[in-house]
Amino acid sequence: KNQVEQSPQSLIILEGKNCTLQCNYTVSPFSNLRWYKQDTGRGPVSLTIMTFSENTKSNGRYTATLDADTKQSSLHITASQLSDSASYICVVSAERGTALIFGKGTTLSVSS
Amino acid sequence: GAVVSQHPSRVICKSGTSVKIECRSLDFQATTMFWYRQFPKQSLMLMATSNEGSKATYEQGVEKDKFLINHASLTLSTLTVTSAHPEDSSFYICSAHGTEQFFGPGTRLTVL
Which among A34, A55, B35, B82 has most CB atoms closer than 10 A? Predict the structure, then answer.
């Protein structure tokens, strides 16, 4: 069964600190893995998208890694800001980029 | 990046009425659009896949007669919630597939 699991479910950190979110998947055949940021009451916004051959990709303070052998990905946020408070969703594409399997997300709260 | 809009962003209606939600891809053509529903603190759940010029494909458990989907053009898909009930209250998000999937900002539906 195609599944995407994320951990932790929620996380609270102080402003300026770094954090890492985890994503494990059992999706086959694998096409690509995406990390989205979803603010409360808004649609998801793409942070990174990685294919099988990519190990790491950065987008500003966000860095995603992918280990296709162990089927794990992480999203590292550097020097967190209050505006980083949101839900971060790991999404794996099963075939040709259209069928998406969503993780339940990690809710990040950044406090001052 | 590509822009997907939804209208309205928020709607409140009485039980038994119908509500139409529009999803538009503003700067690209999308042969395929997707409709999702998201309950509080839950991940996005795919409701149906909308293909331009053909009938939508509904996920298991989604009533096609209750959630009418029309994809009349390459830039517009509509979701009509017919005879809405309070349990239909949710956050509805569309996405459009261009070079990748881009999500709309969502529509908050509240049925009284």
Answer: B35
